[in-house]
Amino acid sequence: MKRQRGKPMNERGRELRRDLAVIFIVMAVSLFRPSELLGISTFTKTVLANIKPFVYIGLFLVWSAMVKRSIINKYLRDYLLAVAYSGVFWVLIRTIKFEMTIRGDRLNFFLQYVYYIPVILIPTFTLFSALHTRRGENYRIPKALLIPVLCISITLILLVLTNDGHHFFYGLKNGVFSVWEYSYGIVYYIILIWITLLITIAIFLILIRAKLPNRKFTVVKPFIIITVIVIYFLLERIFPRIWEYFSSDWASFTSLAFIAILDSCITTGMIPANTDYEKLFRALNLEMIIADDMGKPCFVTAGVYAPYIIPSYAESDISEHNTILKTYRLNPGMAVWKEDTSKVTRLIKRLQDNRNELSSKNELDRENVNTKLAIQKAQENNRLFDLSQQATKKQNEALDDILEAYSKEKEKEKKKALLAKAAVLGAFIKRRGNLVFAAEKYGNISSGELKLCFHESIRNIELTGADCFLDFHLTEDKRIGMSTACLLYEIFETVVENCIDDFGSVFVRINEEEKRLSAFISIGTNRHLKEGSLPFYVLADSDNGSLNISFSLPTEGGEEL
Question: What residue ranges define each of the domains in the chain, with the CATH number in brackets?
Answer without folding.
Answer: 9-274 (1.20.1070), 279-342 (no CATH), 443-554 (3.30.565.10)
